[in-house]
Amino acid sequence: MQIACVQMAPRIGEKDLNVRRAIDFVTRAADLGAELVVLPELANTGYVFDSRAEAESLAEPVPDGSTTAAWSEVASALGVYIVAGIAEKADGALYNSAVLLGPDGYLGSYRKTHLWGDEKKLFASGDRPSPIYDTPLGRIAIAICYDLWFPELFRLYALGGAQIVCVPTNWVPMPNQSADRPAMANTLAMAAAHTNGLVVACADRVGVERGQPFEGQSLVVDQSGWPVGDVASRSLEEIVSASITLDARTSVGTHNDVLADRRADIYGRIPAFDGH
């Protein structure tokens, strides 16, 4: 299977332009052979809202809004699956969400569970994990950006049978991070993949928006915990593409399995999760 992560620079407030540019990137990724394409967090709106009113003016219902419709149309036309970040409004609340679209249209969505920084002033947090979607490509779950800092979520997905976790994200520099170090999130993505036997596909954005720089460095990590293909730059818009095989859960060792070797009798159990 070919996975592509689109690293782009959405423009705050320019939703129509962002949607069109995302479609252009998805089309390019499909031309490169991608069957699953991941777009950044809040790819249709930009990220650094100056007020809740601005966020609300750009958010839309899911799946009935124009962005989901436009991305669904291109997924159907190209025969690909898309995971993309979107600002959602529902029942008077705003959510930092992501949608999963496929050749047959809208499959479902996920609302970001762990909110970062000023997101807490704008969005309500999701109250449940992503469903695990059983697709012809594999079993797909979704996380968004700061969710990557919480290993419990990825363990939950692994125990629920997920094979791939798609991560739309807007990574920012971490405190005490030196300029020559890779993004902290790259390490976290590698750890989540390695310790759970998951493929983790992270699509970050680039650029500076209202004074906030973003880290770029989008990547696809396989079940071994190592990036497949190139890790994207810190500053350029680009597509990271990787060929993935889902036949092996992990390469920790010949006689070991990171899920089967767990000692839940000692350190407790994560509540059962059936993927729905």
TrEMBL record:
It holds the Pfam family CN_hydrolase. One of its GO terms (molecular function) is acyltransferase activity. The keyword Lipoprotein applies. It comes from the Bacteria. One of its GO terms (biological process) is putrescine biosynthetic process from arginine. InterPro entries: Aliph_Amidase/BUP (IPR050345), C-N_Hydrolase (IPR003010), C-N_Hydrolase_sf (IPR036526), UPF0012_CS (IPR001110). The keyword Cell membrane does not apply. CDD domains: nitrilase_2. PROSITE patterns: CN_HYDROLASE, UPF0012. Keywords: Acyltransferase, Hydrolase, Lipoprotein, Transferase. Residues 1-246 form the CN hydrolase domain. SUPFAM superfamilies: Carbon-nitrogen hydrolase. Belongs to the carbon-nitrogen hydrolase superfamily. NIT1/NIT2 family. This is Nitrilase/cyanide hydratase and apolipoprotein N-acyltransferase. It comes from Paraburkholderia phytofirmans (strain DSM 17436 / LMG 22146 / PsJN).
